[in-house]
Amino acid sequence: MNQQLHFDLSAAARRSMIAHGFEPEYPPPVAAQLEQLHQHPVPANPSTRDLRGMLWSSIDNDTSKDLDQIEYVEGVPGGGQRVLIAIADVDAYVPKGSPIDQHALRETTTVYTGVEIFSMLPEELSTGLTSLLQDQERAAVVIEFTVDAHAQITNSNISLARVINKAQLAYPSIGAWLAGQAPPPPKVAASANLQQQLHLQDDIAQRLRSERSTHGALNLETIETHPIKISDGTIDLEAEVKNRATQLIEDFMIAANGVVARTLDAKHYSSIRRVVKTPKRWDRIVELAAQRGTQLPADPDPKPLHDFLCEQQKKDPDHFADLSLAVIKLLGPGEYVLEKPGEEPQGHFGLAVQDYTHSTAPNRRFPDLITQRLLKAMIAGQPSPY
């Protein structure tokens, strides 16, 4: 008799999480805190700005429900454009030291296994009350800055606001439309204002990217896949493709995180920086380039490496992902480091930026929640909560 064997992928993922030190089950005090939130909703802060009327939109994966940020841009007198990025105010619902906060601190991050998502925060928050879902009024921390005609970032500001996401959009359809490869998705086709808004966002993002490239931001491309369930219960792998929409969000987030890092330093707050240090295995990268006919300098320099990678992408696009992966491994891992006011920033070698933190995903990364609390203390004129 043929007996079909069944392997429970979700159970295996949970066992793997536990084996690696995670706690996928929330402790009882978390449920009690959630019940309190339902019985006593967090009141709106009357001192926050009312930015609900702006044409905010989000771009994320098709299946994403834990939306951390939305974007809006507008022209400013004298030229240039103002970029506003609203980040979900998670701290309003997760006070420092509360049961949910303590559990999130232990987990540190949301883990996406494909078959199951192990959320750092209870989904009642991360995909509900603290997610910037379409047509839902939410509290947010707004990072804004002006991009001038030379793609330089000026006149930054950080504030609290109430916002409403007017259009929840997805990377594949928006990316194809921005690249002129497909018609606009229905939400975009129905609004000339939204079309104009997204084209303006794309233009600003491309100019920011071009400016970073002149300073040596590395052009790397890796093949990322995620499992998808087929109707018959089997699992297939689908490649995630970068496009103009993913670039738009990436460039806006890099700019916003730079603004946050510089603002905290200027206000004399210690902060957590995300850095990729100067690679110690630069000699191996030099050797890798030499094998392909390019001589890199003996001392680490991101600009010649950037130029080499761009050349290789044009020359051999089919194997560029393999080259990118090799370079990423030789660059070494990113790290979180403490930076005190006035200290020389260590910088992010791969992004070619000196000031960089993580602040734009507090639903999914605990360092971002810490940074959000620093920003809210700064806005209120209070000492650092850490």
Write the H/E string, N to C.
Answer: HHEEEEHEEHEEHHHEEHEHHHEH
Largest β sheet strand count, sense and barrel closure: 6 strands, mixed
Are there runs of 5+ residues with pLDDT below 50, and where?
none
Q: Give the CA-CA distance, first to last residue.
A: 64 Å
Return the structural class.
Answer: alpha+beta
Q: What can you see in these coordinates?
A:
The chain is of the alpha+beta class and 386 residues long. It contains twelve helices and twelve strands. The strands form four sheets. Strands 1, 2, 3, 4, 7 and 8 form a six-stranded mixed sheet that branches. Helix 7 packs across helix 8. The longest helix is centred in the middle third of the chain and has 23 residues. The chain is globular.
Brief summary of the model shown:
Helix content is 38%, strand content 20%. It is of the alpha+beta class and 386 residues long. The strands form 4 sheets. Strands 1, 2, 3, 4, 7 and 8 form a 6-stranded mixed β-sheet that branches. The protein has a two-stranded antiparallel sheet with strand order 5-6. Strands 9-10 form a two-stranded antiparallel sheet.
Q: Which descriptors would you attach to this protein?
A:
single chain, alpha+beta, 6-stranded mixed beta sheet, two-stranded antiparallel sheet, 12 helices, globular
Write the layout of secondary structure elements.
Blueprint: H1 9-19, H2 28-39, E1 49-50, E2 56-60, E3 69-75, E4 81-88, H3 99-107, E5 111-112, E6 117-118, H4 123-129, E7 137-147, E8 153-170, H5 171-178, H6 186-189, H7 192-214, E9 224-229, E10 235-240, H8 244-266, E11 271-275, H9 282-290, H10 302-315, H11 320-331, E12 335-339, H12 366-380
Parallel strand pairs: 1-8, 2-8
Antiparallel strand pairs: 3-4, 4-7, 5-6, 7-8, 9-10, 11-12
